[in-house]
Amino acid sequence: MAITDAVGRLAIDNFAYVGSLARLTFRAAVAVVTGPRQGAGLRYRRALHQAMAVGVEAIPIISLITFFVGVILALQSAHELKRFGAMEFVPNAVALSLTRELGPLMTAIIVIGRSGSAFAAEIGTMKVSEEIDALETMALDPVSFLVAPKLVAMLIMMPCLTMWSDFMGIAGGAVFGILGAGFTITSYFRATLDSLLKEDIITGLIKAFMFGMVITAVGCQEGLMTGLGSEQVGRSTTTAVVKSIFVVILVDLGFTALFYFTSPS
Length: 265
Prior knowledge:
Elements: H1 2-38, H2 44-54, H3 59-81, H4 90-128, H5 131-137, H6 142-180, H7 185-195, H8 198-224, H9 230-262
Helix pairs in contact: 1-6, 1-8, 2-6, 3-4, 3-6, 4-6, 4-7, 4-8, 4-9, 6-7, 6-8, 8-9
């Protein structure tokens, strides 16, 4: 009975946590839509500031990592394709792997480490220092004041960052293709464009959009759940990173399966 009780409590806690994420996201989305008309809620300057922090400042590290990922993909693909005399398919393998899967996933993991943790630390610190209570005392909704700008910034910047990471990864693959596989710049990028369909790019962008929603919800929820004491801020930040990666992987799995079973054969 002890095992079944533990499993039952764990399942209830997990469903309750997912429900809290959905409720927080819904409240933030409502604030985005209705806040400007009410003269409250969403602050455009805060959203712009968050977009700069989430997107623009992340470009250097995302560029570097995805460029090297593209080189690695090209090397691994060439290692196998060379055995079958099919080196001309290296651009196809790199482009499809990046646009469908690795581009949005690598971008999400980097953004979790940079911004998801920062969301939890910022809101957690405000919770410990009772700034959240001060906002409520001033009749300001913490969700519309803190979470909504972050949600807007993340939903806009995640697809943009994903497109950039796709490009940098393909550029990394092109370096190997030109130096080690006999391609020219023109032939490599022509082969890449011929291998990609509109659905491949849209699939990755849909995933990126959902990843942005998940990262914002988990980071802000963990910050709002922070207990008393500075130690709790660190725990909330760590928990936000771990849970964000786990939920992003689950969302990725779900959408990959959905696209697989619904795509025309």
